[in-house]
Amino acid sequence: MSVNERVLSYPIPVEAALEPPAEWAELRGACPVAHVTLPSGDRARLLTRYEDVKQVLADPRFTRLLNAPDAARLSDTEDGGLFGSEMAAIIPDSGEEHQRWRRLVGRWFTAKRMSALRPAMARIAEDLIDEMVERGAPGDLKASLGFPLPVYVICDMLGVPAADRERFSYWSDTLLNLTRYGKEEVEAAQAEFFQYMSDHLAARRAAPGEDLLSELIAAGGPEEGGLSDIQILVTGMALLVAGHETTANMIGKMVSMLLADRSRWERLLADPALVRTAVEESLRMDANSGFGLPRYLKEETEVAGTSLPRGTTVICSMAAANRDEGAFEAADRMDLSRSPNPHLAFGAGAHSCLGQALARTELQVVLEVLLRRLPGLELAVPVEELRRVEGLAVGGLQTVPVRW
How many angstroms separate the CA atoms of 385 and 73, rounded? Predict the structure, then answer.
């Protein structure tokens, strides 16, 4: 049966931790608007071509709210997971309110502010590497460096204690659930997380600090041009999840990609100036980035010559789009000096990732420090033995065993 006629299970199963499913290339070539079944059993359409994904992400008719009665549920718990939950509806989706939210929160994520954070990030990376080296090889780069660094940074920005990071990790996993957790466990974890953030905001109101949440409280409510209490609370939860989970996973995947072919690591050792473009190429080449971005269609429209009725849920696979030969020359080859590199790892349009300057800075700093401190770094297992994280909306590796 051709890919045109098949209904694929989504996410598409794949064995290799760092390689894309073979179906991506087939779909881009023959079936750019494919039929898929989600973990919930609901149907959706999958986009895999660069131009189509970019078009949909920038089109306001495709909304990110998946709590409409006819929207596809993503997860196999009834709430539909993070994207379809009531919480997702609290942060404004479009128009002036969304712009205001991005403006207020985005002040904390400017390239200038990230640049100022670089020395502190580098110190954290140095300390974490010291601890990993002290424990001895082999070590797990994800647990030792990839996970704690972004957690320390986002906790500091939000003014919450990094000592609670294990709890954040569990709570965010439940929020990103597709098939790993049951409904009761998800609801209990979300209630705990909600209570934790409520208590934290109450403490910040009583004693403001120099952090993002204190600043959002100080901006006043909607009548003063600020956010409502519930919007601040959900923003805090969303940033804590988004601010560590994706980057923690990406650090492990990036280092694994660079070590999978030793000549890549050697090239960076010889020319550390390539770190910036190497980070961008790692983001583009990430074949295990997770679910992609779901969008709900409020009115009938056309994508790639296919008419999609109102009520369609579309999944944009940025990872598949980033390997589109029509957009990138030698798209399946990792070119550490590729420039320009207009990949879609952070989305596109009005909803492109707010924290992309933070993620880029963390990835660059980690790579710079690793190259300097552990030039002999290598994978401690064959690349075929690396295992994907399963059952969550975000892609990653279970562990990244390394020696040095």
Answer: 32
